Amino acid sequence: MSHEDDPLEHERASWQPSPGLAVAVTDPVQNPELPQHRERVTDSDPAAMKRAVRTVYTLFYLSVAGSIWAIAAYMLFPIEDGQPVAIRNNNLFIGLGIALALLALGIGAIHWSKAIMSDKEYIEPRHATRGRDTTREAAVEAFALANEESGFGRRAVIRNSLIAAVVASIAPGITLFRGLAPEDTPERPNAGNPVYLLSHTMWKEGSRLAHDPSGTPIKASDVTLGSAFHVIPEDLAAISHSEGYLEQKAKAIVLLMRLPQDQLHPSPGKEDWAYDGIVAYSKVCTHVGCPVALYEQQTHHLLCPCHQSQFDITHEAAVIFGPAARPLPQLPITVDSEGYLVARSDFHEPVGPSFWERH
Questions:
Q1: Is residue 213 located within the same domain as residue 330?
Q2: pTM of model > 0.85
Q3: pLDDT by residue (tens digit) across 81-100?
Q4: Containing domain of residue 324, as a range?
C-alpha cells in the first residue's frame, strides 16, 4: 500500500485543531535555585558563638569525667563476693558512668555541628572526569575548606576536648575486660593460666555421668542406638552458683551417644575409652568455645551451630568441615557395679578453643 493510499496517514495530515481548543505548551522545569540562607544566632552574635563553644567543650570534658567515673566504679564496687547487692551496684554505677560519657559526647558533637560548624548551602557540580591532577587538587582544597569551616583545626579547645572524650570513652571497656584475665594468687596459683584451667575439669575416676540439668545418673542400658544425651558430672549438683557452678559446668559439659561398635575406629591406646559403643565427647567446640549440640543420627556427625564446624564421631570426633582446628576431647568412660556410666578419668587434653594452647 502506498503512502497516498494509507487512510491513517491521510487523516493525520488533514487534522487541524478546532478554533476554540487551547493547546498547552509545556516549558522546561525551572531551577528553583537555593533558598535564601538564614543565619543562626551564633553566626551574627559573637557572644552566642563563645557560649556555644564553651558548651561543646564542657560536654566533651563531662564525657571524660563519665569515663573516669566508670573506671572508678569498677574499683569501688567490686563483685568478687557474688552478692546480688554488689552486682547491682557494680552494674548501676558503671552503667551510669558509661551512659554519661557516651551521652555527653553525642550531644556535644551534635551541638557543635548545629551551632558552630558552617551551615551554608553549597552545590557540587557533577561531571564524569575523574583522576586528573586538577581533580586531586580540588579534593585537597575541599578537605582544607571543610577543616576551616568545622573549626576542628582552628578551635583547639574543642578539638582537644573531643579527642580526650573519645579516648576516655574507650577506657571503661578496657577496664572491664581486665576482669576476664585473673592473676595468679596464693589461693589460686594458676588462675591466670588458661591452658591449666581448661586441662582440669570436675571429671575424675568414678564420677557418674548424669543428665543435664537434673543431675540424674545414667545407666548404660538407658542409652539406645542413635540417641544423644547432654551430660554433666553427678557431683556438679552439690556446687552452688556462688561457688562456681556455671564455670565448672562450662568446662565439664559432655555429649553422650551410642553407635554400633563396628562403626567406631579408635586409635591405639583408646580402645577402652568407649563402652559397648557408647562414647562421650566434650560439648565445647574447639574453634571458639560454642556448644556443639546438633547430632546427625545417620551420618554420626556433630555440628557446631556457630560456625558450622563438623566432627565425625566414628573417627574420634575428627574435624571434617569448618574452622575448628582439632577434634573434640574424648572423655574415657566405663560402667560401675550398678551399671551406671562413670568416667575413667578426666579429659586427657584441654577442652575448649584450641587458641588457648598457643604460646
A1: yes
A2: no
A3: 667 888 888 899 999 999 99
A4: 194-357
